[in-house]
Specification:
single chain; about 850 residues; alpha/beta; Rossmann fold; Four Helix Bundle (Hemerythrin (Met), subunit A); 6 domains; eight-stranded mixed sheet; 27 helices; 31 strands
Amino acid sequence: MNASADLPIYEVLPELRAALDAQPLVVLQAPPGAGKSTALPLELLNAAWLGTQNIIVLQPRRVAARSVALRLSELLGQKVGETVGYRVRFESRVSARTRITVMTEGLLTRLLQTQPELPSVGLVIFDEFHERSLQADLALALVREVQEALRPELRVLIMSATLDPALPARLGGVPLIASEGRTYPVEVRYLPTDPQGPPGAALVSAVSRALEEHPGDVLAFLPGVAEIRRAQSSLTERHPEISVLPLYGDLSPDAQQRAILPDPHGRRRVVLATSIAETSLTLAGVRVVIDSGWSRRMRFDPASGLSHLATVRVTRASADQRAGRAGRTAPGVALRLWSERTQAALSAAFPPEILEADLAPLTLELAGWGTPDPAQMSWLDAPPAPKVEAARELLRELDALDGNHRATPAGLELLSLPTHPRLAHLLRGGERLKLTVLACDLAALLEERDPVQGAGADLTERLDALRRFRSRAPHRGDAAVLERVERLSKHWRQALNVGPDNSPADPYAVGRLVALAYPERVAALRPGEQAQPNTQAQSRYLLAGGQGVRLPDADALAGTPLLAVAHLDARLVQGEGRVYLAAPIHEADVQERIGTQQTVRWDTRTGTLLAQTERRLGAIVLSSEALKVIPAELRTAALLGAVRQEGLERLHWSDAARQWQARVLSLRAWRPQEDWPDVSDEVLLGTLEDWLPPLLGAQRTRDDLARVDVLPGLHSLLPWPKTRELDSLAPTHLSVPSGHSVRLEYRPDGDPPILAVKLQELFGLADTPAVNAGRTPVLLHLLSPARRPVQVTQDLRSFWASGYFEVRKDLRGQYPRHPWPDDPWTAEATHKAKPRGT
C-alpha cells in the first residue's frame, strides 16, 4: 500500500514496525509532510499483530478527520467509507468493510463508554498529540487503563511533529522513533515593531504586499471568525481576481474542503484561517504564511465557574507550526506580524488543556467509566483538584452525580448525548417538559456563535430569527450562522425524534430551559435596582452562584425581576460580569431549587448578629424574616466568624491571660524538644474552634464579646500535667528575702522574665533568682524606694560587689529613712523604711 513510497516516513517504517511488534505503546516524532497521517496507517494494516482487527486514528478536529480520511482513501483509489472512513459528531462515513476509522478524540471516549474493551480494534493512533487537548489526554488515560486491565495486546501509537522530549519517560520509558522528514526551507521575517490596532488591519496590508512580492498561495492566521470575515471582505474588494477563502471549525464540510483543495479555476488563493490550520492539514500550493500572532483560547475560572474566550499571543511552538505550512511542497516565506523582541518573549507552548479547561465533561465521563476519583487514573498531567471540585458541584446541580461522585442514572443519560453536560441536561429536560423542539433549537443556538449580534440579550429574538430563517421568512441575523444553527438543531431533532416548529417561542419557556443548563446562573435583580430606559446605566443582578452581573438599562430585558442567563462575560468590571444572552423566568419554574435556610451572620457595620430565616435560590435571597430563637451552633459559628474577622483584641484579655500566654510561649522557646503548644495570637486566631466555643453563649454585640474572658479557654489548651509543669517551670511570682512574693513579667518571645523589686528586699541574696528549673535567670529591675528603676541586671553578685555602692552613694541622701548598709551581703532584707527618729 505504499502509494507514496517516497515519503520520509518510510525511512523509519522498519524500526517502527519492530517497536510495535514488541511494545504496546510507542511514540513517533515526525515533522509535517513526513506522511505519518496520510501513509503510515495504511502501511500498518498488514502487521501480523493486527490480524483482521481495525485501526482508529484520532484527530483533534473534525476538518482534519475528514481531510485525512479523504487522503487515505485517495491513496487506495477508493471512496471514503470503504477501507477508510471517518466519524465526527453527527456524521459518519464507514461501512462493514472499513478497517481504518479516523475520528475526533471525543468520539473515542464515547465509544469506550459503550465498548470498553474495543473488541474489534487492534491499534489506536493519537495524531497531533502535541496539542494536548482535554479529550486527547482523557482518551489516552482511558485507553491505557484498557491496556492494563482488559487488552494488554492492544497497541497505541502517539504521533506528532513536535513533542515534549520527556514524553517517552513520562509514559514509562516507551520507545521513541524519530523521522527526520523532508521540508523545504522557510524564510521567517519579522516587523521592526509590533503593529497597533486590531490584528486584521495589519494582516490585510501584509497579504496585499505578499501577493505582489511572492509566488504561490497565501495562508493567513487570524484569532477568530469575526477577524476572518472583516479581512475577507477587505481582500475581496482589493483583489477581485484572487480567491479569498475562510477556514475555521464552524464552516460546513464543503466550505472547508474548498479552502483545503486547489482552486478549480487555477486562481491564486488566500486562505484566512484560525489555529485550526496549524497542524494536520496540508493546503496545496501554499508558499506564504502570514501570522497575526494571535489565537483565541477558552479559559475557565473555577472561582466563578465560568469560561470565557480570551485572545492571547501565540506561543513559539504555535508560531513554528504555522510557519512550517509554507514549506510543505516548495521553499516559502513566513511573515510574522510582530517584532523579534516580542518573539523572544513568547511562551514556549500553551499549557495542556486539562490544566485550564472546564472539567465538567471529563468528570462526568470518568464517573460513567466507574472511576469517580481522577487521582486513580494515569495522567500525563493530573486535572487540578479545584477545577474537579467545581465540575462536581455543577454536575450535582444537574443531578448527574451522587454524593459519592458517581454517575446517577440521569448522569448516564446525559453521557448518551454528544454535547456538554449542561446542554445534555437542557435537552433531556426539554423532553420531560414537552418542550423538545424548543430545546433542540435552543441547544443549537447556545453551541454556535450569536447569529443576531448587537440585538440585546434576549434569547427569544435569536429563536425567532432561527425559526424565520427555517421557514424562509424575512429575518434578522447572519444567514451563515443561522444555517449552522439549523443544521445542528436538525441533528438534535433527528436524535430525539421530533420535527421542526416555527411558531413564536414563549420567552418564559426559553428561560425555564436555560435554567436547566445553567442553574447557577439564575439571576435576580438586586434590591433597589430599577431600569432607566435610554440611559447608559446598568441594571445589577446577583447570580444564584454568588457572582454579580450587569445588563445595560437600554436592553429590553433590563429590570426583569428574574433572568436565566446563558452567556456572560466572566471578565469582571468593577467586580461584576456582563450578561450577553438570557431569558426571563418565573420563580415558580425554579421552585424545586428554592430552599428555606436559617442564617446567622455578623454585621460589621453595626457590630451585631443578624439572624434570619431566608427563602433562597443559591446566593439569592428571595425573602426573609427575623429569627427569634437562634440555634446555638449557628450563633457560635457566627461569633467565631466575627472574632476571626475583627481580631482577638475584640475579646477581653486580662493581664493574667496575657501572662499565661507569655509563660507558655517562653517555655516553648526555652524547651523546643518538649511539646509546649504554640499559643501565639496568629495560631489562636486560626484555631478558634478548639478553645473559644465553650466561652460563647448569648452574646449578640461587640460589647458582649468584649466581656468574654479568654483565660478559661486558654487553660483548656494545656492538659493537666502540663498545667502543673507550667506552674513549676514558669511561676507567676517569686519569693524574695524580704518575705514578699513578687510578680514576674513574662515576655512571649522567650526573653528572660522581668522581676521588678525594691533593692532593699534582696539584701543577703547572693545569686540571681531563676525559673525554668534554674536554667533561665530572671532579669532584675532593681527599684528605688520610690519604685523607680535604678539598675537592670542578670548578675546580682556583680551588682553587690560594685554597682551597689554607686547606687548607694546617689540614693541614700534622697531616701535617708531607708537602709543603705555597708555590707549588703549580710544586711537584713526589708521592704520597710526605718522608724522616724532613727
